[in-house]
Amino acid sequence: MTTTISERELEFLLYEFLDTEALLQRPRYAEHSREVFDATLATARRIAEERFAPYLRQGDEQEPSFVDGRAEVMAPNGPAWRALAEAGFLNAHWDADEGGLQLPEVVLRAAMSAFYAANVGIASYAMLTIGAANLLRTFGTPALKDRYLEAMGDGRHAGTMALTEPGQGSALGDIKTTAVPQADGSYRLFGQKMFISGGDQNFTGNIVHMVLARIQDAPAGVKGISLFLVPKVLPGEQGAAGVRNDVALAGLLHKMGWRATTSTVLSFGEAGGAVGWLVGREHQGLAHMFQMMNEARIGVGVMAACIAWRGYAESLAYARERPQGRLPSCKDPLSPQVKLVAHADVRRLLLAQKVYAEGSLALCLYACSLFEDQHSHPQPQARADARRLLDVLTPVVKSWPARYGATSNDMAIQVLGGAGYTRDYPLEQLYRDQRLNMIHEGAEAIQGIDLLGRKVVMDDGAALRLFVETVHRDRALASEAGLADEAAALGAALDCLTATTAVLTERLRNDPDLALANATVYLDVFGRIAAGWIWLQQGRVAALALEGASAGRADHYRGKLQAMRYFFRWELPQTQAQCELLTRLDRSALDMQDDWFV
Amino acid sequence: MTTTISERELEFLLYEFLDTEALLQRPRYAEHSREVFDATLATARRIAEERFAPYLRQGDEQEPSFVDGRAEVMAPNGPAWRALAEAGFLNAHWDADEGGLQLPEVVLRAAMSAFYAANVGIASYAMLTIGAANLLRTFGTPALKDRYLEAMGDGRHAGTMALTEPGQGSALGDIKTTAVPQADGSYRLFGQKMFISGGDQNFTGNIVHMVLARIQDAPAGVKGISLFLVPKVLPGEQGAAGVRNDVALAGLLHKMGWRATTSTVLSFGEAGGAVGWLVGREHQGLAHMFQMMNEARIGVGVMAACIAWRGYAESLAYARERPQGRLPSCKDPLSPQVKLVAHADVRRLLLAQKVYAEGSLALCLYACSLFEDQHSHPQPQARADARRLLDVLTPVVKSWPARYGATSNDMAIQVLGGAGYTRDYPLEQLYRDQRLNMIHEGAEAIQGIDLLGRKVVMDDGAALRLFVETVHRDRALASEAGLADEAAALGAALDCLTATTAVLTERLRNDPDLALANATVYLDVFGRIAAGWIWLQQGRVAALALEGASAGRADHYRGKLQAMRYFFRWELPQTQAQCELLTRLDRSALDMQDDWFV
Questions:
Q1: Which end of chain B has the least Cβ crowding within 10 Å, N or C?
Q2: N- to C-terminal Cα distance for chain A?
């Protein structure tokens, strides 16, 4: 068993489901080749298996500790981080003139999947650092970039996003951290941030915090928030060693899982003010930060897909080895035991995991290809469309893999039964690690409100229309490939979603509380339809390629087709009852009164 | 917040939803009164809050350790056990001439809920001991009972059930532990048992293992299994101190949760043979053991309900305290934050938890009332009916609370967001503890096959017919109480289940592998309909009692009605797509081939 996404699966997703080779036609990638892409994937896989996978359990058991005001993490974090950085995975997507390799986003995200599947607790530092560096690349002044970007690209510095505060949770408009302007153009920050992943550790010389704060006397709410770069260590004068900035580690949070990543409480300005510099424009901080949040939301989707995939692979390996009982049709108690995988319910648990894990990864890599198109597609209209489609899909890409990744990891435990509940196998840890994905980077409820309250209504519904058109186009292609039944079922579900959306958005104008009351269900319906669309495309590719395929490839294609069928028989039909509930503008939760609970 | 099921909720379930006071008319309970029942509940609550609840986290962090071949558990286990035993909770259901108080099963199970909600890891030793003692009461010889029963009733001895072996898992027909007859009528046992909960600990002087084993030269399969009592410590001669039996603790299993209960590997007969005595008849061991398994399955349902209820209460308390953001209709960023509980999606998460937790507990206590009727109802037909109904419901009572208890505890975490993922709150532990309930005492797949393959077809479908008749009778009553819409919806779902069952049982005769392939879905549909029935009855009681109720009671009734409505709007409609899938005899999982997975 491999601890990373299988080579064949990534090959299928990048080169058959997506047409990643077509990127080679774009000027930015003219120097590359498929061989370069594949070598990138292979390098990530090798490092993940050597430096990440062996420490999955250790990262869980040897939780970061608070020592003399600093966070100490387990020793293997450092070498893993350096191997990843030295292989260029922090900056390979940068332009050549920035010091990067100009590799496509989608190839890099596919490569990063190896780290997430092997050990997400170590890998998430990289995800955050890449996002923070991208923010600096987009909005930073040349001087700030000169000072920090190179070190964030080669792994000497790590990066974080510091948004949440103890008293505010998901409502960013209520953050209180204050930035006081200084005569030299810098700021001094005062306040406390909570749940800051990677907020401290002991394997990089510096940490660059991207902090949301309110400039003194700024307007209330989200319109008064600005973005600041606040380093853990300030540059020394005239090349001298750096000095600690006034950013204190106030505490470590002890989590259920994902323990190799520190989760911190940071205090800014307890000793005179933390030095920071404005990134981008005053009071535009939240809009700027959304670049990193959106990247991180896709990142969460990828991580959720990878944890689900790992659980799938682990439980499949067990089910193939372990003898257990006999089929219901066998009445001879002396006949040999069959393997677990022979039992129908175990197959269901494995097939559903395949559907969730591979469907999630395909959805996420599709989103990465949109990100790619948004930035490098030669046609302006295609760039605009990609941006619009990615906008509406981002809450789905964040949520569907997280929700069904959790279901998937639950099923992985169930395949093993009692053994799956013990720490002798990694399934229980994957289950715990996965659970964070429904929470961080915007909890499920936030994503639902973002989707229904913002994304589907923006630009007079243009993004939703584009999504619907795109799905209908792909349905037609699938029909031609012999998948008419599934294409028709998806069409019906999509029509249902469209009609439901019309009812909800109409109500949104005069009663947003009611319209958004069941937004989480709306998110689930949308996600299920998006996943059906993704599976239909995978099925189409498999159906067309099956004939004439080698035996091994044919099995892989048959698996894809069976997984697609499972989705259309088991998952998609559930959207009907959900749409009916939404269309009725169900008030059950909204009308429940606090005093009526226990 | 209380750490045990609220007094009002138990009052509602025992005296309004069920008619527990009617039991006082039966000769066995003639000496009792409602005051005695209530005092029993109050005693359990007091002990649970004093001796169990404070050690929930400690039981998780201070896992049992293997010391010199013995299991050492955290210190608070002992005093908690003794307080529970001294208050009579191990034997209060025994007849007076056995040394018991002749308390009704349903009252005791309701009382035990306090221990499960407060700290299931400590409380489960009691559940196992009660079941093992009941087995001895039913099937043991007078000599064996004389030797062990009193000590199991007063807590000097604990009890276990020892079924599973390392190589066999759920297929009991494959167990290999052997019992060799001795001249004195005893046996020597040889073999290894795994996942034995409470298999060793250091707070009782002895542990009575109820062990399934195969008498030398017994027939293969389940028909060659016998039941033995094998104590950890053998009686000394002539009143001398006991000597260790040849039962060795081979190891402790390290679980994801439920850690205050030891999970052990036991080796029998490594030094000449473990002394044991036959309980019941030769080769009838599995049938005998089913008494304990069935009790344990109801016990798992109760425990799952209680863990769900605790999560509900904890997340509700948090949601009422914590300020967070504003409603979608509020556009003023300077307005005060509202409490979490004001947000529609948080209310959904709380209302759904109420539905799952209270619905589960009501279902389980209803099952306990059937157990009660089976044994103490004055009319033979009513006893037979209760037995039959309990038979068909047992897999549902075991599974629905476990499955939706897990969903419920997942929602409890989500209410708290990032805080729920930390060990600063008990939600993450409850989520981990709860996960075991889908596995132990027969995993979900086993329950599905038991329900569809055995229970609904036994006696030519008599139990299913009885279930259907009972639900229709209760539907009519609910209709009269003004709940006609819900009663009609439940009727339609029940008709759908009946038709689906006919298709499946017809196919069972000639193609059991296909008929049972989706038995887990069948279990889920059955469970959802049973839960709908239970909620309809709770709703009926609330509807009738609402008028003229005091303000506090009226709120409780309104909550029950709203929870019922939620169930009928959100949960019951999902049965339709599931029945369609089942009626189609869907082959998706069955047809999936091993080679088609990754």
A1: N
A2: 48
pLDDT digits (tens, 9 = 90+) for B12-21: 999 999 999 9
Contacts of B361 (CB under 8 A, 6+ apart): B5, B9, B13, B113, B302, B305, B306, B309, B401
Give the DSSP H/E element, type plus range, for residue B207.
Answer: strand B206-215
How many Cβ atoms sit within 10 Å of the Cβ of residue A488? 13
Task: Give the sign of the dihedral formed by CA A57, CA A60, CA A61, CA A63.
Answer: positive
Report the length, in residues, of chain B. Answer: 598
- Segment B301-325 shows an average pLDDT of 97
B522: Cβ contacts below 8 Å, ≥ 6 apart: B448, B451, B452, B500, B501, B504, B582
C-alpha pair distances (Å), A426 with each of A54, A594, B255: 11, 40, 11
Burial letters for A45-69: b for 16+ Cβ neighbours within 10 Å, e otherwise?
Answer: bebbbebbbebbebbbebbbeeeee
Give first-to-last CA distance, chain B, whole Å: 48
Cα distance between residue B64 and residue B253, in whole Å: 9
A295 tagged catalytic: no
Residue A592 to residue B427: CA distance in whole angstroms: 23
Condensed to tens digits (0 to 9), the pLDDT of residues A272-290 reads 999 999 999 999 999 999 9
Specify burial of residue B317 (Cβ count, 10 A radius: 0-12, 13-18, 19+).
middle
The token duo for B545 is: 């009692």
Give the tokens for residue A564: 């697609």
The structure's pTM equals: 0.98
Looking at residue B171, what is its pLDDT? 86
Q: How big is the CA angle at A397 (ends A413 and A46), to the nearest 5 degrees?
A: 65
Nearest to B399 by CA among B494, B527, B588: B527
- B423·A254 Cβ contact <8 A: yes
CA of A259 vs chain B CAs: smallest distance (Å): 11
pLDDT band at B236 (very low <50, low <70, confident <90, very high): confident
Q: Token digits for A402?
A: 């997280």
Which residue of the set A372, A441, A444, A571 is catalytic?
A441
Picking from B56, B50, B137, the residue whose alpha carbon sits closest to that of residue B90 is B137
Q: Give the H or E element holding residue B206.
A: strand B206-215
> Cα separation of A188 and B417, whole Å?
30
Q: Which of B168, B354, B423 sits opposite A597 (nearest CB)?
A: B354
- Is 90 exceeded by the pLDDT of residue B249? yes
Residues B74, B59 contacting (CB under 8 angstroms): yes
Write the DSSP string, B473-524.
HHHHHHHHTT-HHHHHHHHHHHHHHHHHHHHHHHHHHH-HHHHTTTHHHHHH
Q: B-contacting residues of A 532-571, CB under 8 Å?
A: 555-556, 558-559, 562, 565-566, 569-570
Record: contact B313-A598, CB cut-off 8 A: yes
DSSP A156: S
Residue A505: Cβ-neighbour burial (10 angstroms; 0-12, 13-18, 19+): middle
> Looking at the predicted complex, does its ipTM rise above 0.95?
yes
Q: Which of A228, A197, A190 is nearest to A211 (CA)?
A: A228
| Residue A79: φ, ψ to 5° | -60, -35
- In tens, the pLDDT along A113-161 reads 999 999 999 999 999 999 999 999 999 999 999 999 999 999 999 999 9
Q: Does A581 touch chain B (CB under 8 A)?
A: yes
Can you count the helices (H) and strands (E) in chain B? 18, 12
B573: helix, strand or coil: coil
Are A338 and A323 a contacting pair, CB within 8 Å? Answer: yes
Instruction: Tell me the C-alpha distance between B89 and B66, whole Å.
Output: 29
DSSP strand pairing (B157-162 vs A65-67): unpaired
**A428, A592, A594 ranked by CB distance to B256: nearest:** A428
Q: Does A351 touch chain B (CB under 8 A)?
A: yes
